[in-house]
Amino acid sequence: MSKRINISVVCVIQNQPIMRNFQMPSGSTVADAIKEARASGAFPPDENTFSGCAIFGRRVEPVTALHDGDRVEWLQPLRCDPKESRRLRAHARAKAAE
């Protein structure tokens, strides 16, 4: 009998976090976890709504092997450039201080 590992898959859809726990065969990859998450029906099937994956906040490739207890984060594309966002906030603060 093959050893199984426990993992979680997390994503945010419309500002609502969704997290599901799965048991996967030992030797599974991040891509396997995403496939399992899609098959569960809790996550959207359209991969264009996501830009990558991470494990505990560290970006990884889909071929990355999973370990027991890993939390796979299914990442969405950024809505705006963080540098531009900071510039706009700084500009707004400067205007308010005038």
Report what the structure shows.
By secondary structure, this protein is α+β, with helices and mostly antiparallel strands. The chain has a single domain, classed as Beta-grasp domain (Ubiquitin-like (UB roll)), CATH 3.10.20.30. The chain is built from two helices and five strands; from the N terminus they run ββαβββα. It has helices at 30-40, 82-97, and strands at 4-13, 16-25, 52-55, 58-60, 71-75. Strands 2-1-5-3-4 form a five-stranded mixed β-sheet, with helices on one face. β1 (4-13) and β2 (16-25) form a beta hairpin. The radius of gyration is 18 Å and the shape is elongated. The model has no long low-confidence stretch (mean pLDDT 86).
- Could you say what the CATH topology is called? Ubiquitin-like (UB roll)
Please report the total strand number as a whole number: 5
How many domains is the backbone divided into?
1
The name of the CATH superfamily reads Beta-grasp domain
| Backbone CA Rg | 18 Å
Spatial order of the strands forming the largest sheet: 2-1-5-3-4
Overall CATH architecture: Roll
Mean of the pLDDT scores?
Answer: 86
Residues in helices, as a percent range? 25-40%
Shape: elongated
Helical region count?
Answer: 2
> End-to-end span in angstroms?
71 Å
CATH class: Alpha Beta
| Sequence of secondary-structure elements | EEHEEEH
